Protein backbone atom coordinates (compact mmCIF):
# COMPACT_ATOMS: atom_id res chain seq x y z
CA UNK A 1 0.00 0.00 0.00
CA UNK A 2 1.30 3.44 -0.97
CA UNK A 3 0.07 6.83 0.23
CA UNK A 4 1.20 10.42 -0.02
CA UNK A 5 0.66 11.10 3.67
CA UNK A 6 0.60 8.59 6.46
CA UNK A 7 -0.69 9.86 9.81
CA UNK A 8 -0.02 7.80 12.93
CA UNK A 9 -2.64 8.46 15.59
CA UNK A 10 -6.26 9.51 14.98
CA UNK A 11 -6.82 11.71 18.01
CA UNK A 12 -7.49 15.47 17.68
CA UNK A 13 -4.05 16.13 16.11
CA UNK A 14 -4.26 13.30 13.59
CA UNK A 15 -7.85 14.11 12.61
CA UNK A 16 -6.99 17.79 12.16
CA UNK A 17 -3.88 16.91 10.12
CA UNK A 18 -5.89 14.67 7.79
CA UNK A 19 -8.62 17.30 7.30
CA UNK A 20 -6.05 20.04 6.65
CA UNK A 21 -4.16 17.97 4.09
CA UNK A 22 -7.22 16.54 2.32
CA UNK A 23 -8.15 19.54 0.07
CA UNK A 24 -4.81 19.11 -1.76
CA UNK A 25 -6.07 15.82 -3.16
CA UNK A 26 -3.26 13.88 -1.49
CA UNK A 27 -3.91 10.20 -0.72
CA UNK A 28 -3.96 9.98 3.05
CA UNK A 29 -3.97 7.05 5.47
CA UNK A 30 -4.96 7.75 9.08
CA UNK A 31 -3.96 4.93 11.42
CA UNK A 32 -4.82 4.27 15.05
CA UNK A 33 -4.52 1.30 17.39
CA UNK A 34 -7.98 1.92 18.87
CA UNK A 35 -11.15 0.55 17.26
CA UNK A 36 -12.37 4.06 16.36
CA UNK A 37 -10.94 7.51 15.70
CA UNK A 38 -10.96 10.17 18.45
CA UNK A 39 -7.87 9.33 20.48
CA UNK A 40 -8.09 9.26 24.25
CA UNK A 41 -10.00 12.49 24.78
CA UNK A 42 -12.69 11.76 22.17
CA UNK A 43 -12.93 8.04 22.79
CA UNK A 44 -16.37 6.78 21.83
CA UNK A 45 -18.32 3.99 23.53
CA UNK A 46 -21.60 3.09 25.20
CA UNK A 47 -20.90 5.43 28.15
CA UNK A 48 -19.12 8.23 26.24
CA UNK A 49 -20.67 11.64 25.58
CA UNK A 50 -18.81 13.32 22.75
CA UNK A 51 -19.09 17.06 22.04
CA UNK A 52 -20.95 17.92 18.79
CA UNK A 53 -17.67 19.22 17.31
CA UNK A 54 -16.32 15.66 17.35
CA UNK A 55 -19.26 14.20 15.43
CA UNK A 56 -18.74 16.97 12.87
CA UNK A 57 -15.02 16.12 12.55
CA UNK A 58 -15.79 12.42 12.17
CA UNK A 59 -18.44 13.15 9.54
CA UNK A 60 -15.97 15.29 7.58
CA UNK A 61 -13.31 12.55 7.76
CA UNK A 62 -15.72 9.89 6.54
CA UNK A 63 -16.84 12.15 3.67
CA UNK A 64 -13.31 12.47 2.26
CA UNK A 65 -12.75 9.69 -0.24
CA UNK A 66 -9.00 10.37 -0.25
CA UNK A 67 -8.68 9.62 3.49
CA UNK A 68 -8.40 5.95 4.36
CA UNK A 69 -9.06 5.12 8.03
CA UNK A 70 -7.01 2.23 9.37
CA UNK A 71 -8.29 1.62 12.90
CA UNK A 72 -7.27 -1.18 15.30
CA UNK A 73 -3.86 -1.07 13.58
CA UNK A 74 -0.43 -0.83 15.15
CA UNK A 75 2.97 0.14 13.78
CA UNK A 76 5.29 -2.82 14.38
CA UNK A 77 8.54 -1.84 12.67
CA UNK A 78 10.22 0.23 10.00
CA UNK A 79 10.23 -1.96 6.90
CA UNK A 80 12.56 0.21 4.80
CA UNK A 81 13.08 3.86 3.88
CA UNK A 82 9.68 5.57 4.17
CA UNK A 83 7.98 2.25 4.88
CA UNK A 84 6.26 1.07 8.04
CA UNK A 85 5.07 -2.43 8.87
CA UNK A 86 1.54 -2.30 10.26
CA UNK A 87 -0.58 -5.03 11.86
CA UNK A 88 -4.33 -5.19 12.45
CA UNK A 89 -6.51 -7.96 13.90
CA UNK A 90 -6.53 -9.91 10.64
CA UNK A 91 -3.43 -9.12 8.64
CA UNK A 92 -0.19 -7.19 8.25
CA UNK A 93 1.00 -4.88 5.51
CA UNK A 94 3.78 -2.52 4.62
CA UNK A 95 2.65 1.07 4.06
CA UNK A 96 4.90 3.26 1.93
CA UNK A 97 4.58 7.00 2.42
CA UNK A 98 5.95 10.22 1.04
CA UNK A 99 5.32 12.27 4.22
CA UNK A 100 4.74 10.96 7.71
CA UNK A 101 2.87 12.86 10.45
CA UNK A 102 3.32 11.49 13.96
CA UNK A 103 0.32 12.21 16.19
CA UNK A 104 1.11 9.47 18.69
CA UNK A 105 -0.31 11.33 21.69
CA UNK A 106 0.58 10.83 25.31
CA UNK A 107 0.12 8.17 27.91
CA UNK A 108 -0.38 8.50 31.64
CA UNK A 109 2.55 8.50 33.96
CA UNK A 110 1.77 5.59 36.27
CA UNK A 111 4.00 5.52 39.33
CA UNK A 112 4.39 2.47 41.58
CA UNK A 113 3.06 2.38 45.15
CA UNK A 114 2.24 -0.56 47.42
CA UNK A 115 -0.81 -2.39 46.06
CA UNK A 116 -0.86 -0.70 42.64
CA UNK A 117 -1.11 -4.11 40.92
CA UNK A 118 -4.40 -5.01 42.68
CA UNK A 119 -7.50 -5.37 40.49
CA UNK A 120 -9.57 -2.25 41.22
CA UNK A 121 -6.59 0.08 40.72
CA UNK A 122 -6.34 1.84 37.35
CA UNK A 123 -4.89 4.98 35.84
CA UNK A 124 -6.98 8.16 36.21
CA UNK A 125 -7.35 8.80 32.50
CA UNK A 126 -7.34 5.02 32.28
CA UNK A 127 -10.51 4.76 34.35
CA UNK A 128 -12.15 7.41 32.20
CA UNK A 129 -11.29 5.44 29.06
CA UNK A 130 -12.53 2.17 30.57
CA UNK A 131 -15.82 3.75 31.66
CA UNK A 132 -16.42 5.18 28.19
CA UNK A 133 -15.95 1.64 26.86
CA UNK A 134 -18.77 0.40 29.10
CA UNK A 135 -17.03 -0.45 32.40
CA UNK A 136 -19.80 -0.45 35.04
CA UNK A 137 -19.01 1.79 38.04
CA UNK A 138 -22.54 2.62 39.30
CA UNK A 139 -22.66 2.46 43.10
CA UNK A 140 -18.88 2.00 43.43
CA UNK A 141 -16.91 4.07 45.93
CA UNK A 142 -13.99 5.69 44.14
CA UNK A 143 -10.82 7.47 45.23
CA UNK A 144 -8.80 9.43 42.68
CA UNK A 145 -5.18 10.39 43.25
CA UNK A 146 -2.13 11.68 41.43
CA UNK A 147 -1.69 14.98 39.65
CA UNK A 148 -3.13 17.28 37.03
CA UNK A 149 -6.53 18.39 35.71
CA UNK A 150 -7.21 14.87 34.41
CA UNK A 151 -8.09 13.86 38.00
CA UNK A 152 -11.12 16.16 37.94
CA UNK A 153 -12.13 15.07 34.45
CA UNK A 154 -11.93 11.42 35.48
CA UNK A 155 -14.02 12.13 38.59
CA UNK A 156 -16.69 13.86 36.48
CA UNK A 157 -16.95 10.90 34.07
CA UNK A 158 -17.16 8.41 36.95
CA UNK A 159 -19.83 10.43 38.75
CA UNK A 160 -21.88 10.86 35.60
CA UNK A 161 -21.92 7.06 35.41
CA UNK A 162 -23.07 6.55 38.98
CA UNK A 163 -19.83 6.18 40.96
CA UNK A 164 -19.40 7.94 44.32
CA UNK A 165 -16.16 9.92 44.28
CA UNK A 166 -15.04 10.08 47.92
CA UNK A 167 -11.74 11.91 47.61
CA UNK A 168 -9.46 13.45 45.01
CA UNK A 169 -5.84 13.68 46.18
CA UNK A 170 -3.69 16.10 44.14
CA UNK A 171 0.02 15.97 44.95
CA UNK A 172 0.69 19.59 43.96
CA UNK A 173 0.33 22.27 46.63
CA UNK A 174 -2.67 24.58 46.97
CA UNK A 175 -0.34 27.42 45.94
CA UNK A 176 0.50 25.59 42.70
CA UNK A 177 -3.14 24.68 42.00
CA UNK A 178 -4.29 28.23 42.80
CA UNK A 179 -1.51 29.63 40.61
CA UNK A 180 -2.72 27.49 37.73
CA UNK A 181 -6.36 28.46 38.33
CA UNK A 182 -5.38 32.16 38.46
CA UNK A 183 -3.96 31.87 34.93
CA UNK A 184 -7.07 30.22 33.51
CA UNK A 185 -8.92 33.47 32.63
CA UNK A 186 -6.37 33.77 29.80
CA UNK A 187 -8.18 30.79 28.28
CA UNK A 188 -11.85 31.44 29.26
CA UNK A 189 -13.07 28.19 27.77
CA UNK A 190 -10.64 26.28 30.02
CA UNK A 191 -11.77 28.29 33.05
CA UNK A 192 -15.40 27.30 32.42
CA UNK A 193 -14.34 23.67 32.00
CA UNK A 194 -12.49 23.77 35.32
CA UNK A 195 -15.42 25.36 37.18
CA UNK A 196 -17.74 22.67 35.84
CA UNK A 197 -15.41 19.95 37.12
CA UNK A 198 -14.89 21.24 40.66
CA UNK A 199 -15.36 18.58 43.36
CA UNK A 200 -15.75 19.06 47.16
CA UNK A 201 -13.48 16.07 47.92
CA UNK A 202 -10.52 17.70 46.12
CA UNK A 203 -7.43 18.12 48.34
CA UNK A 204 -4.01 19.53 47.39
CA UNK A 205 -0.66 18.49 48.93
CA UNK A 206 -2.16 15.00 49.14
CA UNK A 207 -1.18 11.65 47.73
CA UNK A 208 -1.79 7.92 47.80
CA UNK A 209 0.31 5.84 50.23
CA UNK A 210 -1.01 2.34 49.50
CA UNK A 211 -3.82 0.38 47.91
CA UNK A 212 -5.05 -2.21 50.43
CA UNK A 213 -6.67 -5.60 49.82
CA UNK A 214 -5.84 -9.27 49.24
CA UNK A 215 -7.07 -10.23 45.80
CA UNK A 216 -9.02 -7.03 45.08
CA UNK A 217 -8.88 -3.42 46.25
CA UNK A 218 -10.70 -2.87 49.55
CA UNK A 219 -9.36 0.46 50.82
CA UNK A 220 -6.86 3.20 50.07
CA UNK A 221 -4.39 4.73 52.52
CA UNK A 222 -3.90 8.40 51.72
CA UNK A 223 -1.84 11.28 52.97
CA UNK A 224 -4.24 14.23 53.04
CA UNK A 225 -2.21 17.36 53.63
CA UNK A 226 0.11 15.43 55.97
CA UNK A 227 -2.65 13.45 57.77
CA UNK A 228 -2.81 9.70 57.12
CA UNK A 229 -6.31 8.49 56.34
CA UNK A 230 -7.80 5.15 55.27
CA UNK A 231 -10.77 5.20 52.92
CA UNK A 232 -12.70 1.97 52.17
CA UNK A 233 -13.53 1.84 48.45
CA UNK A 234 -13.94 -0.46 45.47
CA UNK A 235 -11.83 1.52 43.05
CA UNK A 236 -8.72 3.72 42.96
CA UNK A 237 -7.78 5.73 39.89
CA UNK A 238 -4.26 7.06 40.00
CA UNK A 239 -2.41 9.08 37.37
CA UNK A 240 0.60 11.35 37.83
CA UNK A 241 0.32 13.46 34.68
CA UNK A 242 1.08 12.69 31.07
CA UNK A 243 4.15 11.64 29.13
CA UNK A 244 4.56 12.07 25.39
CA UNK A 245 4.62 8.93 23.25
CA UNK A 246 7.92 9.57 21.51
CA UNK A 247 8.97 5.94 20.84
CA UNK A 248 8.14 5.81 17.14
CA UNK A 249 9.65 9.22 16.47
CA UNK A 250 12.77 8.28 18.38
CA UNK A 251 13.07 4.98 16.49
CA UNK A 252 12.82 6.88 13.20
CA UNK A 253 15.65 9.18 14.26
CA UNK A 254 13.67 12.29 15.20
CA UNK A 255 15.39 14.50 17.75
CA UNK A 256 13.86 14.29 21.22
CA UNK A 257 13.93 17.36 23.47
CA UNK A 258 12.41 17.62 26.96
CA UNK A 259 10.98 14.09 26.53
CA UNK A 260 9.00 15.25 23.46
CA UNK A 261 9.52 15.08 19.68
CA UNK A 262 11.27 18.33 18.75
CA UNK A 263 9.57 20.28 15.94
CA UNK A 264 10.04 23.60 14.12
CA UNK A 265 7.39 26.20 13.24
CA UNK A 266 5.99 23.93 10.50
CA UNK A 267 5.69 21.03 12.97
CA UNK A 268 8.54 19.38 11.04
CA UNK A 269 10.78 17.07 13.05
CA UNK A 270 14.56 16.86 12.65
CA UNK A 271 14.02 14.10 10.05
CA UNK A 272 13.14 15.12 6.50
CA UNK A 273 9.45 14.52 5.62
CA UNK A 274 8.50 13.54 9.17
CA UNK A 275 6.17 15.91 11.04
CA UNK A 276 4.83 15.65 14.57
CA UNK A 277 1.82 17.27 16.24
CA UNK A 278 -0.20 17.14 19.42
CA UNK A 279 0.72 15.61 22.76
CA UNK A 280 3.81 13.80 21.38
CA UNK A 281 5.45 17.23 20.94
CA UNK A 282 4.62 18.16 24.57
CA UNK A 283 1.30 17.69 26.34
CA UNK A 284 -1.13 20.60 26.44
CA UNK A 285 -4.61 19.38 25.64
CA UNK A 286 -6.86 18.93 22.63
CA UNK A 287 -6.88 22.60 21.53
CA UNK A 288 -3.11 22.61 21.10
CA UNK A 289 -3.30 19.22 19.37
CA UNK A 290 -5.97 20.43 16.92
CA UNK A 291 -4.04 23.52 15.82
CA UNK A 292 -0.69 21.71 15.64
CA UNK A 293 -2.28 18.90 13.64
CA UNK A 294 -3.77 21.38 11.18
CA UNK A 295 -0.40 23.15 10.78
CA UNK A 296 1.34 19.82 10.16
CA UNK A 297 -1.31 18.80 7.61
CA UNK A 298 -1.07 22.09 5.71
CA UNK A 299 2.74 22.08 5.82
CA UNK A 300 2.98 18.47 4.64
CA UNK A 301 1.08 19.34 1.44
CA UNK A 302 3.05 22.57 0.95
CA UNK A 303 0.28 25.03 1.87
CA UNK A 304 2.60 27.16 3.98
CA UNK A 305 0.30 30.21 3.97
CA UNK A 306 -2.51 28.22 5.59
CA UNK A 307 -0.06 26.79 8.10
CA UNK A 308 1.40 30.19 8.98
CA UNK A 309 -2.10 31.60 9.46
CA UNK A 310 -2.51 29.24 12.46
CA UNK A 311 0.71 30.19 14.26
CA UNK A 312 -0.87 32.78 16.62
CA UNK A 313 -3.53 30.26 17.65
CA UNK A 314 -0.84 27.68 18.38
CA UNK A 315 1.14 30.17 20.46
CA UNK A 316 -1.92 30.79 22.62
CA UNK A 317 -2.38 27.09 23.44
CA UNK A 318 1.33 26.52 23.93
CA UNK A 319 1.07 29.10 26.70
CA UNK A 320 -1.61 26.98 28.32
CA UNK A 321 0.62 23.90 27.95
CA UNK A 322 3.48 25.68 29.75
CA UNK A 323 1.20 26.74 32.63
CA UNK A 324 -0.05 23.18 32.93
CA UNK A 325 3.39 21.58 32.92
CA UNK A 326 4.78 24.08 35.40
CA UNK A 327 1.92 23.97 37.92
CA UNK A 328 1.69 20.22 38.29
CA UNK A 329 5.41 19.40 38.48
CA UNK A 330 5.88 16.27 40.58
CA UNK A 331 7.08 16.73 44.15
CA UNK A 332 9.44 14.37 45.99
CA UNK A 333 6.83 12.46 48.08
CA UNK A 334 5.23 10.73 45.09
CA UNK A 335 8.64 9.58 43.88
CA UNK A 336 9.13 7.66 47.10
CA UNK A 337 5.88 5.75 47.41
CA UNK A 338 7.25 2.32 46.47
CA UNK A 339 8.57 0.11 49.30
CA UNK A 340 11.27 -2.58 48.78
CA UNK A 341 8.70 -5.28 47.92
CA UNK A 342 6.57 -3.07 45.60
CA UNK A 343 6.62 -4.45 42.06
CA UNK A 344 8.07 -1.89 39.66
CA UNK A 345 7.92 -4.00 36.49
CA UNK A 346 4.36 -5.32 36.28
CA UNK A 347 5.12 -7.59 33.31
CA UNK A 348 8.01 -9.50 34.87
CA UNK A 349 7.00 -8.89 38.53
CA UNK A 350 10.30 -7.28 39.56
CA UNK A 351 10.31 -5.54 42.96
CA UNK A 352 12.04 -2.29 43.88
CA UNK A 353 14.59 -4.13 46.06
CA UNK A 354 15.76 -6.16 43.02
CA UNK A 355 16.26 -3.08 40.90
CA UNK A 356 17.63 -0.18 42.85
CA UNK A 357 21.13 -1.58 43.39
CA UNK A 358 21.83 -1.71 39.63
CA UNK A 359 22.25 2.02 39.14
CA UNK A 360 20.96 2.24 35.57
CA UNK A 361 18.31 0.95 33.18
CA UNK A 362 20.47 -1.40 31.12
CA UNK A 363 22.28 -3.15 34.04
CA UNK A 364 18.94 -3.48 35.85
CA UNK A 365 17.31 -4.94 32.76
CA UNK A 366 20.13 -7.40 32.12
CA UNK A 367 20.20 -8.59 35.72
CA UNK A 368 16.48 -8.68 36.51
CA UNK A 369 14.42 -8.81 33.25
CA UNK A 370 12.85 -5.47 34.22
CA UNK A 371 11.32 -3.95 31.08
CA UNK A 372 11.54 -7.16 29.05
CA UNK A 373 7.84 -8.05 29.21
CA UNK A 374 4.91 -7.31 26.95
CA UNK A 375 4.74 -3.54 27.57
CA UNK A 376 8.43 -3.28 26.64
CA UNK A 377 9.24 -0.97 29.50
CA UNK A 378 6.61 1.65 28.68
CA UNK A 379 5.31 1.58 32.26
CA UNK A 380 8.40 0.67 34.32
CA UNK A 381 10.79 2.61 32.05
CA UNK A 382 8.82 5.81 32.63
CA UNK A 383 8.57 5.01 36.35
CA UNK A 384 12.30 4.37 36.83
CA UNK A 385 13.04 7.57 34.92
CA UNK A 386 11.02 9.52 37.51
CA UNK A 387 12.11 7.46 40.52
CA UNK A 388 15.84 7.06 39.81
CA UNK A 389 16.54 9.34 36.84
CA UNK A 390 17.36 6.31 34.65
CA UNK A 391 17.26 7.05 30.93
CA UNK A 392 15.34 4.37 29.02
CA UNK A 393 17.18 3.25 25.85
CA UNK A 394 15.95 3.95 22.31
CA UNK A 395 13.05 1.68 21.39
CA UNK A 396 13.71 -1.29 19.13
CA UNK A 397 11.34 -3.16 16.81
CA UNK A 398 8.93 -4.81 17.17
CA UNK A 399 7.44 -1.69 18.80
CA UNK A 400 4.46 -3.74 20.04
CA UNK A 401 3.92 -7.46 20.55
CA UNK A 402 3.25 -8.81 17.04
CA UNK A 403 2.38 -12.05 15.28
CA UNK A 404 5.15 -14.10 13.67
CA UNK A 405 3.29 -13.81 10.33
CA UNK A 406 3.61 -10.05 10.60
CA UNK A 407 7.34 -10.14 11.26
CA UNK A 408 7.84 -12.51 8.33
CA UNK A 409 6.78 -9.66 6.04
CA UNK A 410 9.99 -7.85 6.90
CA UNK A 411 12.52 -8.53 4.21
CA UNK A 412 9.92 -9.90 1.80
CA UNK A 413 9.58 -8.00 -1.48
CA UNK A 414 6.05 -6.61 -2.05
CA UNK B 1 -26.68 -6.51 21.28
CA UNK B 2 -23.60 -8.74 20.87
CA UNK B 3 -23.54 -11.93 22.90
CA UNK B 4 -20.16 -13.41 23.74
CA UNK B 5 -18.79 -16.30 25.75
CA UNK B 6 -16.64 -15.09 28.65
CA UNK B 7 -14.69 -17.96 30.19
CA UNK B 8 -17.46 -20.25 28.94
CA UNK B 9 -20.36 -18.16 30.29
CA UNK B 10 -22.71 -16.35 27.89
CA UNK B 11 -22.85 -12.56 28.29
CA UNK B 12 -24.92 -9.94 26.44
CA UNK B 13 -23.44 -6.44 26.24
CA UNK B 14 -24.34 -3.10 24.64
CA UNK B 15 -23.03 -2.34 21.17
CA UNK B 16 -19.57 -0.73 21.37
CA UNK B 17 -18.65 -2.30 24.72
CA UNK B 18 -14.97 -3.17 25.08
CA UNK B 19 -13.84 -6.61 26.16
CA UNK B 20 -12.23 -4.85 29.16
CA UNK B 21 -15.69 -3.71 30.31
CA UNK B 22 -17.15 -7.15 29.59
CA UNK B 23 -14.63 -8.72 32.00
CA UNK B 24 -16.36 -6.86 34.86
CA UNK B 25 -19.89 -7.09 33.43
CA UNK B 26 -19.63 -10.87 33.35
CA UNK B 27 -16.92 -11.70 35.89
CA UNK B 28 -14.64 -10.26 38.55
CA UNK B 29 -13.00 -7.84 36.12
CA UNK B 30 -9.62 -9.56 36.01
CA UNK B 31 -7.91 -10.32 32.72
CA UNK B 32 -4.78 -12.40 33.29
CA UNK B 33 -2.48 -14.11 35.77
CA UNK B 34 0.97 -12.55 36.21
CA UNK B 35 4.27 -14.46 36.10
CA UNK B 36 4.24 -14.70 39.91
CA UNK B 37 0.61 -15.85 40.02
CA UNK B 38 -1.26 -12.61 40.81
CA UNK B 39 -4.55 -11.87 39.09
CA UNK B 40 -4.45 -8.59 37.21
CA UNK B 41 -7.09 -6.36 35.65
CA UNK B 42 -7.11 -3.67 32.95
CA UNK B 43 -4.90 -0.85 34.25
CA UNK B 44 -3.89 1.89 31.80
CA UNK B 45 -7.12 1.61 29.78
CA UNK B 46 -5.42 2.83 26.60
CA UNK B 47 -3.39 0.01 25.06
CA UNK B 48 -0.04 0.65 26.72
CA UNK B 49 0.44 -1.52 29.83
CA UNK B 50 -0.65 -4.87 28.33
CA UNK B 51 -2.23 -5.93 31.66
CA UNK B 52 -5.59 -6.53 29.96
CA UNK B 53 -4.36 -9.05 27.43
CA UNK B 54 -6.82 -11.91 27.01
CA UNK B 55 -7.46 -14.58 24.44
CA UNK B 56 -10.30 -13.75 22.04
CA UNK B 57 -11.16 -16.48 19.54
CA UNK B 58 -7.73 -17.97 20.18
CA UNK B 59 -5.80 -14.75 19.48
CA UNK B 60 -4.00 -12.63 22.07
CA UNK B 61 -5.72 -9.24 22.24
CA UNK B 62 -5.74 -6.19 24.45
CA UNK B 63 -9.20 -6.16 26.05
CA UNK B 64 -9.26 -2.36 26.32
CA UNK B 65 -8.83 -1.91 22.56
CA UNK B 66 -11.09 -4.72 21.42
CA UNK B 67 -14.85 -4.37 20.97
CA UNK B 68 -17.19 -7.22 21.86
CA UNK B 69 -18.60 -9.02 18.84
CA UNK B 70 -21.43 -11.52 18.58
CA UNK B 71 -20.15 -15.07 19.06
CA UNK B 72 -16.74 -13.96 20.36
CA UNK B 73 -15.04 -16.36 22.82
CA UNK B 74 -13.01 -14.58 25.49
CA UNK B 75 -10.68 -16.47 27.83
CA UNK B 76 -9.11 -14.68 30.81
CA UNK B 77 -7.85 -17.77 32.62
CA UNK B 78 -4.61 -19.58 31.78
Automatic annotation (TrEMBL), chain A:
<dbReference type="InterPro" id="IPR041854">
    <property type="entry name" value="BFD-like_2Fe2S-bd_dom_sf"/>
</dbReference>
<feature type="domain" description="FAD/NAD(P)-binding">
    <location>
        <begin position="4"/>
        <end position="285"/>
    </location>
</feature>
<dbReference type="GO" id="GO:0016491">
    <property type="term" value="F:oxidoreductase activity"/>
</dbReference>
<dbReference type="InterPro" id="IPR023753">
    <property type="entry name" value="FAD/NAD-binding_dom"/>
</dbReference>
<dbReference type="InterPro" id="IPR051691">
    <property type="entry name" value="Metab_Enz_Cyan_OpOx_G3PDH"/>
</dbReference>
<dbReference type="Pfam" id="PF07992">
    <property type="entry name" value="Pyr_redox_2"/>
</dbReference>
<dbReference type="InterPro" id="IPR036188">
    <property type="entry name" value="FAD/NAD-bd_sf"/>
</dbReference>
<protein>
    <submittedName>
        <fullName>FAD-dependent oxidoreductase</fullName>
    </submittedName>
</protein>
<keyword id="KW-0560">Oxidoreductase</keyword>
<dbReference type="InterPro" id="IPR017224">
    <property type="entry name" value="Opine_Oxase_asu/HCN_bsu"/>
</dbReference>
UniProtKB/TrEMBL annotation, chain B:
<dbReference type="InterPro" id="IPR042204">
    <property type="entry name" value="2Fe-2S-bd_N"/>
</dbReference>
<dbReference type="GO" id="GO:0016491">
    <property type="term" value="F:oxidoreductase activity"/>
</dbReference>
<keyword id="KW-0560">Oxidoreductase</keyword>
<protein>
    <submittedName>
        <fullName>(2Fe-2S)-binding protein</fullName>
    </submittedName>
</protein>
<dbReference type="InterPro" id="IPR036010">
    <property type="entry name" value="2Fe-2S_ferredoxin-like_sf"/>
</dbReference>
<dbReference type="GO" id="GO:0051536">
    <property type="term" value="F:iron-sulfur cluster binding"/>
</dbReference>
<dbReference type="Pfam" id="PF13510">
    <property type="entry name" value="Fer2_4"/>
</dbReference>
